[in-house]
Amino acid sequence: xxxxxxxxxxxxxxxxxxxxxxxxxxxxxxxESLKTACFENSYVxxxxxxxxxxxxxxxxATEERIAEEAGLEFAEHAKIHEDTLGILRRALTEVRSKARxxxxxxxxxxxxxxxxxxxxxxxxxxILQSGACNRSSSLRxxxxxxxxxxx
Length: 151
Prior knowledge:
Blueprint: H1 18-40, H2 46-70, H3 75-96, H4 102-130
Helix pairs in contact: 1-2, 1-4, 2-3, 3-4
């Protein structure tokens, strides 16, 4: 499969589902753009941070739609998405109030997203592509918390 990306999504994180890979690429692109904008000056483009948050939400909704269309049990994976959006929302509020550094927020987003793709999304896509849908397949790695409670 050939996907033409600008190079923000590491090849090792491709999941071979074009819609999802394209969205993953866009999220990495947005994070890199924000890192560049913040490092070049002290201005924090809050509207672009909000747009990143909204893109995460849209991406998670896409994964949930795909799972639903395939009849895949997705409640645990969707809970990871919901919890992540809550953490990111709180952290972004702290960035707005200058209680949290924008750079640390972006580093956290990037790290969390890489791990989520490598572990959770790969499992989801594997089950989806194996035809194991319409079964009660668990999308959660036992004993591993999805992420830190602190962003």
